[in-house]
Structure formats: C-alpha cells, structure tokens
Description:
The structure is a single chain. It contains one helix and nine strands; from the N terminus they run H-E-E-E-E-E-E-E-E-E. It has a five-stranded antiparallel β-sheet, covered by helices on one side. Strands 2-7-8-9 form a four-stranded antiparallel β-sheet, with helices on one face. The protein is rod-shaped and about 100 Å long. 19% of the residues are buried. The N and C termini lie far apart (95 Å). The longest helix has 53 residues, at 7-59. It is α+β, with helices and mostly antiparallel strands. It has one helix at 7-59; strands at 62-67, 73-74, 77-81, 89-94, 97-102, 108-109, 115-127, 130-142, 148-156. A hairpin with a 2-residue loop joins strand 7 and strand 8 (130-142).
Amino acid sequence: MKxxxxxxxxxxxxxxxxxxxxxxIASVYPLIDNYYRNQARLDIEGEVNFLMRKINWxxxxxxxxxxxTAGSTSxxxxxxxxxxxxxxxxxxxNNGDFRISLAGAGPIVLNNVNVKIEKAEFEHISQSGLPxxxxxxxxxxxxxxxxxxxxxxxxGLRK
Length: 159
C-alpha cells in the first residue's frame, strides 16, 4: 500500500484552499476600504477645523475689511487687525491651496497635501449699527479619495 495523495485529492484540496482564500479576501477588502474612507474624512475635518481657526484668529480684533468690499463677494479676504504689525492679513486660494499673506509678503500655504480647496468665497456683509460679518464658503476635497465637504458660515468682526 502506497502512502500519499491522489491527483483527485490534491485538486479537491486546492479548490478548498482557493475558496477559503477568496472568501477571506472578499470579507477583508471592505474593512480596508472603510479604513481609507474614514481616514480621508478625518483629514478633511482636521483641515476644516484648522483653516477655520486661522480665519477666526484673523477676525478676532479685526477693524477693517479691505476685500471684498461691502455687499460683495470675493475669492480673497483681506483685513486689518487692531494692534497687529503685519497688516493686512489676506487669505486666498491658488491651485487648490489655501494661503495666508501677512503685510503683503509672499503667501504661506496652510492646508496639507492630502486635501485641495476647490472653492473659497468670502462675502462682506455690512450691518447698520452692528459690526460687519464675513460670510465664508469653503469646499474641500481629499486628494486620494472622493471624500469632500462644504462649509458655509458667517463670522462677525469682534474685539
């Protein structure tokens, strides 16, 4: 009596191993895909929070909106901040990068390479007897996925 496997037994075992491997890969792939989608959402949320904190910082103590003019919108926000030696502070978007310029110096990119700013629009809303408001609309997309978000808010000039 010879010991070993017949050709039929080897083919059956190969088919079983292939089936189990296929099922394992099919069940793990959605988990990996969800991980990358969640990571993209977290990147976008972090960028939105960071950019909005920078804009809030600039508007805290601002006394003059240079651009856009009252009642209009622009892709650039330029303000003067009280007691700040590097006026004006300007925000804009160029090639998907959100930038800040201080005192007319060269712009500094604020967002990371994983996200692109698709739209940045600022509105100067003047109010009779009240501090001016700045309407902000930002649309941000992740570079490596379809994750994106749009934020719309209004922030008042305040001391």
